[in-house]
Amino acid sequence: LKFAMFMLAEYVNMTTVSALATTMFLGGWHAPWPISLWDGANTGWWPLLWFTAKVWAFLFGYFWLRATLPRLRYDQFMALSWKVLIPISLLWLMIVAIARGLKSALGISPWATAAAGLCLVIAVVVVAVRALSNREATNTIRPIRETTYVNPMAAGYPVPPLPGQRVVDPMIVIRREDIDA
Questions:
Q1: Distance CA 23, CA 97 (A)
Q2: pLDDT over 90 for what percent of the chain?
Q3: Where do the DSSP E strands lie in 52-170?
Q4: Which region, left, alpha or beta, applies to residue 156 given φ > 0 means left and ψ of -120 to 50 means alpha?
Q5: C-alpha closest to that of 33 among 20, 50, 16
Q6: Would you say 151 and 170 are in contact if contact means Cβ atoms under 8 Å apart?
Q7: pLDDT category of residue 46 using cuts at 50, 70 and 90
Q8: Span 77-104, pLDDT tens digits
Q9: Which residues are registered as beta bridge partners of 165?
Q10: DSSP states of 151-170 as a string?
Q11: Which pTM was predicted?
Q12: How far is CA 74 from CA 54, 63, 144, in A?
């Protein structure tokens, strides 16, 4: 029963996040764009159906990703969020703020600000790709000068050797002269 409650809590959390994402990013209970042009799309029971369909779409995405992608560790998720998602969201927030400011102050069309934002995003992507390609070109593998000996049982449990290390039998005592020879 404890495991069932844990799994139930996990799925309730997924549903809650899907409902929040639907509310914040997909327009909540409003009908999707081509259907919203119809006058009766947001009356009666339709808003509940639109919201439920959007939540189910997010849940489908969750289940699909969970079933197809390999499991990621917590540190990998944290690295993704801190190094990728937060900078992207801050960039997006700045683009939206600039677009709103230009629209209210200068009366510039939203399409013009969207085009300028798209050019900015393309420029950022090009700079990032160039920086990554330059960094990968400078990362060369240097040969290890000397072989080091490692005791695989030194920490109390077996540890695999790193490249360039030789495993020493923990039952044999090695003198420094034997290692240097």
A1: 21
A2: 21
A3: 148-150, 165-167
A4: left
A5: 50
A6: yes
A7: very high
A8: 888 888 888 888 898 888 788 878 878 8
A9: 148
A10: -TTTTSS--PPPTTEEE--T
A11: 0.48
A12: 28, 19, 32
Tokens of 64: 């699909």
Query: Which three-class secondary structure state does DSSP give residue 170?
Result: coil
**Could you tell me which of 140, 92, 80, 86 has the C-alpha nearest to residue 120?**
92
Q: For residue 81, give the DSSP letter.
A: I
Distance CA 69, CA 13 (A): 19
**Residue 160 structure tokens:** 């695999």
Q: What is the spatial distance between Cα 129 and Cα 135, in angstroms, rounded to a whole number?
A: 10
DSSP helix, strand, coil percent of the chain (3-state; round to 5): 65, 5, 30
Burial tier of 95 (Cβ tally within 10 Å: 0-12, 13-18, 19+) = middle
CB 19 within 8 A of CB 55: yes
Beta strands in the chain (DSSP E): 148-150, 165-167
State the amino acid at position 62 in one-letter form: Y
CA-CA distances (angstroms) from residue 114 to 96, 107, 125?
9, 14, 16
Report the SS3 class of residue 164: coil
